[in-house]
Amino acid sequence: MKRNLLLTSVCVLLPVCAGITLWGRLPERVPTHFDFSGTPDGWSGRAFAVFGLPLFLLAVHLTCAFAVFHDPKAGNVSGKIRALVLWICPAVSLFAAAMVYPNALGYSVDITLSGMLLTGVLFVVVGNYLPKCRQNYTVGIKLPWTLSDEDNWNRTHRVAGALWVAGGLVMIVDAFVRFGQMYVFIGVTTLLAAVPIAYSAALYVTRRR
Predict the structure, then answer these.
(1) How many domains does the chain contain in total?
(2) N or C terminus: which one in the chain shows less Cβ crowding within 10 Å?
(3) Residues 95, 2: one domain?
(4) How many CA atoms lie within 13 A of 26 on its CB side?
(5) Residues 24, 92 share a domain
(6) What tens digit of pLDDT does each residue of 63-73 get?
(7) Cα gap 201→138, rounded to integer Å
(8) What does the pLDDT read at residue 178?
(9) Same domain, 114 and 76
(10) Which pLDDT value is given to residue 209?
(11) Cross-strand partners of 42
């Protein structure tokens, strides 16, 4: 896993190399945040865009890796789940660079389509892994009643897995249909978070009666 950690960390920092190569062509103020229509609504200095964003993601990446490797129930975290955790930040870092740099250079980039697709694909991938995720303190739906009851954990993650896959597919379709993307994004993400928690709590309350 140390080799994978090194590889993924290098991937997180690849946008720095691209930014240094493009340094002379990048404007002093680089658009780094966009609204749901793809219009820039936030700017950063060139140095922060090139170095700050990847370094921030690297810090998040290393924190996630540390948490997974030092989980008290690390034996329950499979190699596939660890690999999934390790590749999320590199994917986000490379995606951000692919959106920010071309836009800063004046090229037309469909950020809304790309963002919805990436998010949808991530939801589908995570949803496929959730039912296979065993009890641990780092990855999954970590609630007092899921951590104390293995059956509650397993049933909650089966429901969450199906829901996340369905939510991801909705976002992928809406990326092309473009039907109220902001509302679809907010609605889907809210449901993906709230429904598994409510389901798990309902199981807990039912069993206490």
Answers:
(1) 2
(2) C
(3) yes
(4) 25
(5) yes
(6) 999 999 888 88
(7) 19
(8) 84
(9) no
(10) 66
(11) 33
Q: Domain range holding 125? A: 110-209
Q: For 162-194, how does the pLDDT look when each residue is reduced to its tens digit (9 = 90+)?
A: 999 999 999 999 999 888 888 999 999 999 999
Burial of 148 (C-beta count, 10 Å sphere; 0-12/13-18/19+)? exposed
Spatial neighbors of 156 by CB under 8 A, at least 6 apart, are 141, 143, 146, 196, 199, 200, 203
Q: Considering the entire predicted model, what is its pTM? A: 0.86
Rounded to the nearest integer, the mean pLDDT of the chain is 92
DSSP the chain: -HHHHHHHHHHHHHHHHHHHHTGGGS-SEEEEEE-TTS-EEEEEEHHIIIIIHHHHHHHHHHHHHHHHHT-TTGGGS-HHHHHHHHHHHHHHHHHHHHHHHHHHTT----HHHHHHHHHHHHHHHHHHHGGGPPS-SSSS---HHHHH-HHHHHHHHHHHHHHHHHHHHHHHHHHHH-SSHHHHHHHHHHHHHHHHHHHHHHHHHHHH-
> Alpha carbon of 66 to those of 60, 98, 117: distances in Å?
10, 27, 29
The rounded distance, in Å, linking the Cα atoms of 15 and 25 is: 15
The CA-based angle 34-38-43, given to 5 degrees, is: 30
Tokens matching residue 65: 């890796």
Per the CB < 8 A criterion, the answer to whether 82 and 36 are in contact is no
